[in-house]
Design a protein that fits this description.
This protein has seven helices and 16 strands. By secondary structure, the chain is of the alpha+beta class. The longest helix is centred in the last third of the chain and has 23 residues, at 327-349.
């Protein structure tokens, strides 16, 4: 099965299934001598783990990471960093009803047709459980890139949106509520809405905004490895993601060039930043900001019509423990994938200049 690795120089390969014994990963290319704070890795994992509030899945996983290699006496050795996260609370019997049936809008059908054999327990490899490994690697990448700051937060849930520029927000408030929205009033509205959605057996999607600050000029490789192209690939690889836009995004299509151009200041900064910190596929030193759109979780606690392996129509009940809204737990995943992308380009930049 190809497609399990991300990055070129700072490279992550993940493995494992939702209901297998463990999930994990191998990070190759992390330079030696990096001081790694394991507690910070665990903090990021705790932000992603299930069962952390009433608005996420109630699967109880401690998600404790076990480092197997590549870190000695708190420092990276330059060798592959291998790690494991054991699965503790998997209830495979909750998924026997999909052994021969395909859940609508899940990967069940295409995995079966592509491989001819699939692990149906919790979706197997297609489960978002895999993203815990990305968070571990992303946390190490954050520590590697140092002063480059990455902050993501929930921008919208359904039709409820935080309509404030990120410059007016206090990122320290992101973790002050279970929704991970830095505006408490809007967060309360989102939380109540998600609870009602869950009570009705349904799910809802939304948008996560991510801001990367203190980025040096020069990250990004024209023409096919533009910085925004790789950030887009990173975000679109996350489960349930349906859209990515950076800078002015789609709203920029409504402007004329005279309105959209970012005019230079004498020091090379720009008066506006509709470019989203990236020009010609290369970072220009301004803030990079982008939005990631997540669809509603496909598993709903309602009867749905579907088909089985024989192509016969069947009716399926939603079972198992699932998020009514994936956004709160996806915030650290978005940050992790952004960090991995930036770390890869930081290393690459070291190879092209004396």
């Amino acid at each position: 099965m190809a497609g399990n690795s991300f990055g070129n120089l700072f490279k992550l390969t993940t493995f494992g299934e939702s209901h297998g014994k463990a999930i994990g990963g191998i990070i190759d290319g992390c330079p030696s001598g990096l001081s790694v704070d394991i507690e910070k890795i665990q903090e990021d994992l705790d932000r992603r783990r299930p069962g952390q509030s009433k608005i996420v899945t109630q699967r109880k996983e401690p998600d404790c990471v076990e480092i197997l290699s590549g870190i000695f006496e708190g420092l990276t050795t330059g060798t592959p960093i291998a790690f494991l996260i054991f699965n503790k609370d998997h209830k495979s019997k909750d998924y026997t009803h999909i052994k021969n049936n395909y859940r609508p809008s899940h990967a069940d059908f295409v995995y079966d047709k592509k491989y001819g054999h699939r692990d149906y327990r919790g979706g197997g490899r297609s489960s978002a459980r895999e993203t815990a490994s990305r968070v571990v690697a992303g946390s190490i990448a954050k520590q590697f890139i140092g002063k480059i700051n990455i902050n993501a937060y929930v921008q919208s849930v359904g039709k409820i949106s935080l309509n404030k520029p990120y410059q007016q927000l206090d990122f320290n408030k992101i973790e002050s509520n279970p929704v991970r929205c830095p505006d408490q009033k809007i967060a309360n509205e989102m939380e109540s809405y998600i609870k009602n959605i869950r009570k009705n057996g349904n799910t809802v999607g939304g948008v996560i905004r991510c801001i990367i600050q203190n980025v040096p000029i020069g990250l990004g490789e024209p023409v096919f490895d533009k910085l925004h192209a790789q950030l887009g690939k990173a975000m679109l690889s996350i489960n349930a993601v349906k859209g990515f836009q950076f800078g002015s995004g789609f709203s920029g299509t409504k402007l004329m060039g005279s309105e959209h151009n970012d005019i230079f200041n004498p020091d090379g900064t720009t008066k506006s930043n509709l470019s989203g910190g990236i020009q010609g596929g290369i970072s220009n030193g301004m803030d990079i900001y982008f939005d990631v759109a997540f669809k509603p979780v496909a598993t709903i606690m309602k009867k749905q019509d579907t088909i089985n392996k024989e192509g016969h129509k069947v009716t399926m009940d939603g079972k198992g423990r699932h998020d009514p809204c994936v956004l709160p737990r996806a915030v650290p995943i978005v940050e992790a994938m952004a960090a991995l992308t930036i770390a890869d380009f930081v290393l690459l930049n070291r190879t092209i200049k004396l």
